[in-house]
């Protein structure tokens, strides 16, 4: 049955992009400092003008200011500094930041309103001027990138703080009388106008930032067809919207993470670690990664090169065990990818047939690509001190689990653990069988830890050259020191069998033309 769910709209972000909400959080912290500074400047200017004889009427009016205003400044400073620290260290999620931004704008407007209304109003409209709250609305809209609707709500709420501040000061100080209604309209109406202007500014900034983000991101992809689904991930065929380059998009939807006790943040770190690890590798036999990000609905995704071929698990399931010459040809390419990773200090830890593709790659056939470095062990930049696996948990797939990992010695696993996985892959390719019969996970883990497997020639019914079988059984040794020391050493052992050269270009061409012919190129691509 065809999958009818809509594909998520992907908005890509480069690996080094800031986390969601960082820009808003940074701007809110800046606004807290600016709000405090503007209040101090306004208060200082008011007292300064009162003592330089700017206007006798202004001086007399200023002298009537309520002493309660003196307490407002330290209260506001404490509030602003506390808010800045809270945003920096505690509030990280974007919806909470938006709510915090609205609250800060309104509370600051209330402080400003109490400051300016903490003295009797001048009976002459010409001396009143525009409320500083109106100025605050415009400054805040230009500084803090709140969504337009949130900005409108915050601006209207803040404009309402002007009369609220007046009422509070009149109630707290008997020396301050409630001004005439006409003066209140003259004073407060500009704040409402500025609330509308703040909304317009937010809309403009939102559009400009959206365009800037679109111009700066590494790419934008449109999903076409669902290629496969397994575990918590889906893989889609996709097109880059600006480049004639097909891609494959791997994604994890947020609803699949509800039972993951590590939560969505851990999954994002795992994805980022996979992309970081893979992007540092240059072997042509390692999958190339283009981009990484989050979709509009919270789905994690990364874009990688689109491969035209088949994974080794499906290859054997559909077409049966492979001839020894082809197996050696494939294994040596796997070794090329793993050797580079191991030299870089990275261990794949999930080498299995489903994570290895053979494909058409330009003019090459049976070209190997190693995928899914998601369980990679290493120290990519920025993740040196993070543990992304549960303590004591097994990492990898039970049917292909190295003995040292099966025994819980995850920290001791090195490149030779991957070579055990290569042995399991070779066993599958030669016999069409798993090293140990499929059963409960714990039973399979125990078998990898303690049981000696049968040689593949006894399981698949197809003759296996003795030299190759010895290599496979050596790869499946329980003790890491009994396996080949490196992937390069394994490749050399395989080369010494002389089998790889027996799988010729003509053999490759015949097989691919018969079973997986080249796909027709679509017009314009």
At a glance:
With 525 residues, the protein is α+β, with helices and mostly antiparallel strands. It has helices at 22-51, 56-62, 69-89, 94-116, 125-128, 132-143, 148-172, 181-216, 263-279, 312-319, 324-343, 403-406, 415-431, 441-450, 457-460, 466-475, 487-496, 505-515; strands spanning 10-13, 221-230, 233-240, 246-252, 289-295, 300-305, 308-311, 356-361, 364-370. It has 3 domains: 22-216, no CATH class; 219-305, Phosphorylase Kinase, domain 1 (2-Layer Sandwich), CATH 3.30.200; 308-377 and 390-515, Transferase(Phosphotransferase), domain 1 (Orthogonal Bundle), CATH 1.10.510.10.
The third-level CATH topology of the largest domain is: Transferase(Phosphotransferase), domain 1
Order of helices and strands: EHHHHHHHHEEEHEEEHHEEHHHHHHH
Radius of gyration from the alpha-carbon trace, in angstroms: 33 Å
Q: From the 3D coordinates, which CATH architecture of the largest domain would you assign? A: Orthogonal Bundle
What is the 3D form? elongated
- The CATH fourth-level homologous superfamily of the largest domain: Transferase(Phosphotransferase) domain 1
Intertermini distance: 28 Å
Tally of separate helices: 18
- CATH top level of the largest domain is Mainly Alpha
Low-confidence stretches: 11-20, 215-219, 379-394
Provide mean pLDDT, rounded.
79
Based on secondary structure, the structural category is alpha+beta
- How many extended strands? 9
Oligomer: single chain
What count of domains describes the coordinates? 3
Major beta sheet summary? 6 strands, antiparallel
- Which sequence of strands runs across the widest sheet? 1-5-6-4-3-2
DSSP strand content = 5-15%
Secondary structure: helix percent: 40-55%
């Amino acid at each position: 049955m065809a999958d009818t769910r809509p594909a998520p709209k992907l908005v890509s972000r480069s690996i080094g992009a800031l986390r969601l909400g960082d820009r808003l959080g940074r701007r809110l912290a800046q606004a807290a400092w600016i709000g405090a500074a503007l209040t101090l400047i306004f208060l200082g200017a008011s007292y300064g003008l009162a003592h330089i004889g700017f206007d006798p009427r202004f001086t007399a009016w200023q002298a009537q200011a309520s002493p309660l205003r003196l307490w407002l400044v330290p209260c506001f400073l404490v509030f602003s500094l506390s808010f800045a620290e809270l945003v920096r260290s505690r509030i990280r999620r974007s919806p909470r930041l938006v709510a915090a931004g609205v609250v800060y704008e309104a509370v600051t407007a209330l402080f400003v309103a109490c400051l300016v209304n903490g003295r009797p109003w001048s009976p002459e409209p010409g001396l009143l001027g525009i409320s500083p709250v109106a100025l605050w609305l415009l400054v805040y809209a230009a500084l803090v990138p709140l969504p337009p609707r949130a900005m409108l709500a915050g601006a209207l709420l803040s404009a309402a703080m002007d009369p609220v501040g007046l009422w509070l000061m009149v109630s707290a100080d008997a020396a301050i009388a409630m001004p005439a209604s006409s003066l209140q309209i003259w004073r407060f109406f500009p704040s409402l106008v500025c609330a509308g202007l703040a909304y317009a500014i937010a809309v403009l900034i939102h559009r400009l930032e959206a365009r800037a983000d679109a111009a700066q991101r590494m790419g934008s992809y449109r999903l076409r067809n669902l290629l496969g689904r397994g575990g918590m991930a889906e893989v889609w065929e996709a097109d880059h919207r600006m480049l004639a380059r097909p891609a494959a998009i791997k994604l994890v939807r947020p609803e699949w993470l509800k039972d993951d006790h590590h939560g969505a943040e851990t999954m994002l770190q795992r994805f980022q670690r996979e992309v970081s690890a893979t992007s540092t590798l240059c072997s042509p036999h390692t999958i190339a990664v283009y981009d990484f990000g989050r979709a509009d609905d919270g789905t994690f995704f990364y874009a990688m090169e689109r491969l035209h071929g088949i994974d080794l698990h499906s290859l054997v399931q559909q077409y049966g065990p492979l001839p020894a010459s082809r197996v050696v040809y494939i294994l040596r390419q796997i070794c090329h990818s793993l050797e580079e990773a191991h030299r870089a200090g990275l261990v794949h830890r999930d080498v299995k047939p489903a994570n290895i593709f053979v494909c058409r790659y330009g003019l090459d056939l049976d070209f190997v690509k190693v995928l899914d470095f998601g369980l990679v062990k290493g120290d990519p930049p920025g993740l040196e001190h993070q543990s992304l696996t549960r303590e004591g948990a097994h990492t990898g797939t039970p049917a292909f689990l190295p003995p040292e990992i099966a025994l819980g010695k995850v920290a001791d696993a090195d490149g030779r653990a991957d070579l055990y996985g290569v042995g399991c892959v070779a066993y599958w390719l030669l016999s069409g069988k798993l090293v140990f019969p499929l059963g409960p996970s714990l039973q399979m883990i125990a078998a990898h830890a303690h049981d000696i497997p049968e040689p593949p020639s006894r399981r698949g019914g197809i003759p296996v050259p003795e030299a190759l079988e010895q290599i496979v059984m050596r790869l499946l040794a329980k003790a890491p020191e009994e396996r080949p020391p490196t992937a390069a050493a394994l490749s050399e052992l395989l080369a010494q069998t002389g089998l790889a050269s027996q799988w010729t270009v003509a053999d490759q061409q015949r097989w691919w033309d018969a079973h997986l012919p080249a796909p027709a190129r679509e017009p314009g691509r």
